[in-house]
Amino acid sequence: MQFRDDCLVSTRTGVYRGIQTGDVQVFKGIRYALPPSGELRFRPPVPVPRSTEIFDARSFSPVAPQPGRLAKHSGADSLSLNIWRHVKANGRSPVFFYVHGGSFTRGSGRELLYDGTILARDRNIVVVTINYRLGAFGFLDFSFLDDSYIANPALHDLVLALRWTSENIEAFGGDPEKITVAGQSSGGSLVSVLPFLDGVTDLFSRLILSSAIPTSFVPAAVGQDLAERFLVFFRIKDSAGLRRLTDKQIIDGTPAFMRKCGLGVGTFRPVIDDRYLKAFPIDLLRRGRYQPVPMLIGTTRDELSLLEIPFLRRHWKLDHIISDGLSREADATRKSIRLLYEREYRKREARIQLLSDMIFRSAALFYAEAASAASPVWLYRFDLRPVVMRLSGLGAVHSSDLPLIFGNLREGVGKLSFSLPRDRAVARKLSREIQADLASLMEEGTLPWARAFTDDYIAKCYDLPVRYDQPIPQEIYHRYRKTAYYAGNIF
User: Fold this and answer.
1) Of 78, 103, 185, 399, which one is the catalytic site residue?
2) How far apart are CA 479 and CA 491, in angstroms?
3) Which residues contact 78 (CB under 8 A, 6 or more apart)?
4) How far is Cα 90 from Cα 173, in angstroms, rounded to an integer?
C-alpha cells in the first residue's frame, strides 16, 4: 500500500491530512461522531457523514467537557480519535485501540502520556486513542424521562469509535482483523464489557485490561436514583429543562453535585441498564455469555499507595467505598483477611496492599478467573519502583506502568518517576520488554508464560530482573473467594 508524501489518507468518511515526523505519521482530531450537544446530549452518538472536503487532521480536537486541568481544552465537538502509524504500515500492522482512564470524569486521548509515536516507530503498531463523554454527560441515565435518552452514552461513544476504526483503519495501514482494545483504570472498566455487547465482538480480536475495576458498575435502579438526584440538584423538572441546561452549567455544578452525593470518585459509573448492558460483566462471564478472545489483565504492585495521602483519601471518599464494601462481609471474614495481610506484609505495606487488592486486584482476578474458562488469559503485575517513587513511599503506584507501555518516559509522570539517569535506563529496557509482549499478543494472540487459572496461578512481574509470581498471595486470594464480594452479591 502506497501513501502520498503530503500525508493524505482516503477513508470511507473522507480524506484526512496528517503530519509526519521522521517515519511516523499522525492524524489528530478525526471526528467519528457529531458533537453531542443540544438535542444530542445524553443520546446515542450520531456518526459523522462522509465529507467531500479534505479534513485537516493536524491538530487535536477539544477534549470532552470536564473539570480540572484539561478544562481549558474542552468543548462539545470532542468525539474524535487520533491515529499514529509508521509510513511503511501496509495494511497488516496490528492495531492498538486505547481507552484512557480518569475515574469516568477526566482525561483525553490527546494527552502526551498516550502519544503513539514510539509504538508506531519501533513496533510498526498502528495506535488509536479516543475521546468519549465523561461525568454526567457520559454516565447519567435519563431514559426514564424519554426513550430518546440512553444509559451509558460514553460506552456507545467507545463502540462507535471502535466501529469507525474497524471500517477505516486499513487505509492507515492497520489490520482490521488484529485490533486489540486496551484500557486503563476506568477506561479498562469500560473495555471489560465489550465481549458482551451485541454486534460488537466482530470489531476486535484481543483485550488488555490495565488496572481496571470490572465491578465498578451500578444496577439500573441506582443509576436512575443518581439521575433523579441530579435533576433535583439542578432544579430541573422535565426533558425541556434538561435541554435548557448548558454544558458549562453542568461542568461548573458537577463538583458541588459530587460533594452533595458524598460518593467521591464513585459518583459516575456505568449502569447495568438491562438493555444494552444486560448484566454485570463477571456474572456474564460466569454464565459463558460472551465471545472468547485472548486477554492480558494486570495491575501495578502498589495501586493505591497514593491514598495514604490524607487529602486524596478525603477527596476520593475512599473510606466510604471501603466501609460500604466491608459492611457486606461477616465479622469473621473481615478479621481473617486483615490478619492475613498483617502476616504477609509489614504494617504500612499491609494497608497499601489491602486497599489495592480490595479495589483493584481482587476484581481483576475475579474477571480473569471467570474468563479463563473459555478465553486464554494471561496476568501481569507492574512492580518497578524507581528511586524517586521508593523514597516518596508510592512505589509502583496506579498508572505508573503507562509511561513504559507507550515508551513516553520524558513526559508528565514518566519524567517525574524516571528523573535519575539509572532509573531511566532501567525503564527503557523494561519498556522494550513490555512492548514486545504487547506486540506478541496483538500479532499472535498468545504470550510466552503460563495461562492464568489454566496452567498456573502466576503473573509476569515487570521489574528488573523480570520474574513470575502470584499476583496476590494465593492464601489471600482463596480468602477473597469465600467473600460475599466474590459470590456475586454486588455484581
Assistant:
1) 185
2) 18
3) 35, 61, 62, 63, 64, 65, 131, 133
4) 5
Residues pairing with 235 in the sheet: none
Q: How far is CA 361 from CA 136, 234, 473, in A?
A: 27, 37, 11
Rounded CA gap, 19 and 40, in Å? 32
pLDDT surpasses 90 at 332:
no
Q: Classify 384 in phi/psi space as left (phi over 0), alpha (psi -120 to 50) or beta.
A: beta
For residue range 59-112, list pLDDT tens digits in order: 999 999 998 889 899 999 999 999 999 999 988 999 999 999 999 999 999 999
Query: Would strands 8-11 and 14-17 be described as parallel, antiparallel, or unpaired?
Result: antiparallel
Helices 220-233 and 247-261, packing angle to 10 deg: 110
What is the value of pTM for the model shown?
0.94
Calculated CA dihedral for residues 136, 141, 142, 148, nearest 10 degrees: 110
Cell of 99: 481507552
The per-residue pLDDT for range 269-284, each reduced to its tens digit, is: 999 998 899 999 999 9
Please check the confidence at residue 305 and state whether its pLDDT lies above 70: yes
Q: Is 185 one of the annotated active-site residues of the chain?
A: yes
For Cα atoms 484, 490, 491, give the angle at the middle one, nearest 5 degrees: 115
Q: What one-character DSSP code corresponds to residue 50?
A: P
Distance, in Å, from the CA atom of 387 to the CA atom of 159, rounded to the nearest integer, reads 40
